[in-house]
Amino acid sequence: MQGGISALAPGQQLGSCRIIRLLGRGGMGEVYLAQHLSLEIPVALKTLRPDLESTDCVERFLREARMCARIQHPNVVTIHDVGHQEGLYYIVMQYVQGRNLAQVVRECEGRVPWRSALRITQLAAGGLHAVHNLNLVHRDVKPSNIMLAKDSRVLLMDFGLVGQEVDSSVARAGRPMGTPPYMSPEQCRGEPLDRRSDIFSLGSTLYSLLSGKEPFEGATELVMAKIAGGESLPRIEHPDPDMPDDVRVLVTKATAYRREDRFATAWDMARAAKKALTASLLAPTPMLKTVAAVTPGAETAKKAPPLDELLPLRSPRERIVDVLPWILVTGAAVAGLLLFVLLFTLAAVAGRGGAEPSADSSPPPRMIHIEPGFAQLGNDPAKVRTFLENHLDGANLQKALAAIADEPQQRVEVPEFWIDQYEVTNAEYAKFVKETRRAPPEHFLGNEPPPGKEDHPVVNVTYDDAEAYARWAGKQLPTREQWVRAFRGDSDRLFPWGDEYRAELANVGDNSAFPSTSPVEDTPGDVSPFGVCNMVGNASEFIRGTTFKRGVDWRVAKGAEYKLPGFFHGIGSCQYFYRPLDVKERGVGFRCVREEP
Asked: How many C-beta neighbours within 10 Å does residue 282 have?
């Protein structure tokens, strides 16, 4: 690699990988696009410069591989292998088609749309939380180490400085390691670090996305002195006058000088970003798009899309509900929080443990906590009739009313539980198939999901398949009571957002925008009062337990699917039935619950 000559040539094999081309070059080595011969997938192969093998860089390089391999999260780059051959240490990792955020900022001519920046921050914080759950600190969170994939995923990468929490072994005396504009004050001073240092760095990254510049500019030593001394960030000036002050407040809290004043966990920061996003859904946002295939260090050759086409929250067709349901949802959440505080206090007095985890606990990944309360099963017949008469008449109306009447009206108490925020995806189910050798769904290509549909809900499964997956994941399928409570809380609303039907919010048969299943994050308007998504549409969902109908053992499913009309099947009280063993339904999937976090 001396003199700009690459260590590996196209066609050369290293371990189980065949080199395709050089992607980029950094201070410690090179990154190549390669084909993994056994897995038959493209991968990124990262090599260490041969002249560094006699230094402590080898240990850092191997530590990066070992620690990163322990992190399994959709917003963290996956490590496939590590090895040493022909004088080269190498890491085989997930290949990401897209651009890093530093490139995105440049292509946006300085400023990323603020909703898009919040969405990226939310997802990156989710990945960072997974890192912290293993008592690791990334130590180098910055725009160039966060990838925006071509399919709109956000991935945290480059763990070259990763280390154990509150472990100063990575820092060298007199020369703290990291990237100065994004380092925390304690990192600039060479002090031991904990997860709140990464939170500072992610807040500084958000600042860069919004302002189009680095938090502090100038010589390295001057920048480090400013950060270490607690100098405040310059005010964010964004071209969108509608950007709320809540966004600036989020940046300020994440980048507070004292660790104690920052978010306690990355999970808390993700929730704060999500809260600001949810409020912003009253206005439309452009879709997230990327145009180039790039991995760290590579240059993009294509012209960037204009601002109004870049970076995500949702597609223009997706709209949030009107103001009144949002107020009701917020009020319900506040009331639920007050109820929980009361229950927690009573439990503590009685000597029992509290139900809600503290800010420093680790909630299950991609799961939503549902506080104890009530579920309203069934609906008032007069209310349902009035609603359905706007959509059906004659025999069809009578059949619909009879179907909904199968679930009698009752108010039942439901203990606390956790529920998957989204349906189980093809990618998640594929891991189960590979580990257990269970027969894959018929739409899979071998044991792999169809390309481009990794984030779609898995369908073509039986009830027994769903139950087996839940056991494998250490979870269960939701009961009818749990599903309905997550769907509408302690209310009798017909849909998560209220009694008004809004086909444009969900992937249902009467929304022509969706010809099939869609990525689980593509319909943010289909969201329950607790933040559980896609309970109206996308895939209908198996419910735990058995219902006997017409003398035959059937299984219950809830929610509509992409090919069924949501005005009927999307009603929370609607349930329909499938045989448990021999029928694989094209539109039926599932999500899981955990009754103890």
From this structure: 12
One-character DSSP codes across 24-65? EE-SSEEEEEEEETTTTEEEEEEEE-GGGTTSTHHHHHHHHH
CA 533 from centroid of its chain's CA atoms? 12
Regarding predicted confidence, which is higher, 457 or 376?
457
Of 468, 346, 343, 328, nearest in space to 416 by CA: 343
Q: Tell whether pTM > 0.70.
A: no
Contact indicator for 541, 588 with CB cutoff of 8 Å:
yes
pLDDT at 325 over 50: no
Sole residue written with tokens 């978010």: 263
* Helices 195-211, 266-280: crossing angle, 10 deg rounding: 30
Tokens representing 477 are 């399928």
Alpha-carbon span 544 to 76, nearest angstrom = 32
d(CA 292, CA 149): 9
Residue 286 pLDDT greater than 60, yes or no: no
CA pseudo-torsion sign 344, 349, 354, 359: positive
Tell me how far apart the alpha carbons of residues 534 and 504 are, in angstroms, rounded to a whole number: 13
CA 260 to chain CA mean position, Å: 26
**How many angstroms separate the first and last alpha carbons of the chain?**
50
| Among 521, 509, 495, 511, residue whose Cα is nearest residue 586 | 509
CA distance 158 to 433: 29
Rg of the chain over CA atoms, in angstroms?
A: 25
Strand-pair category, 136-137 with 88-94 = unpaired
- CB crowding 195-207: b at 16 or more within 10 Å, else e: bbbbbbbbbbbbb
Among residues 179, 116, 176, 167, which one has the least CA distance to residue 143? 179
Locus of tokens 């398949």: 465
Instruction: Give burial (CB, 10 Å; 0-12/13-18/19+) of 563.
Output: middle
Domains along the chain with CATH numbers: 2-94 (3.30.200.20), 98-309 (1.10.510.10), 323-594 (3.90.1580.10)
Residues classed as catalytic? 140
- Residues sharing a CB contact under 8 Å with residue 529, sequence separation 6 or more, in sequence order: 328, 329, 332, 333, 488, 489, 491, 496
From the number of C-beta atoms within 10 Å of its C-beta (0-12, 13-18, 19+), residue 432 rates as buried
Query: The tokens of 208 are what?
Result: 């860069």
Determine phi and psi for 44, rounding to 5 degrees: -100, 130
Q: What is the mean pLDDT of residues 437-465?
A: 92
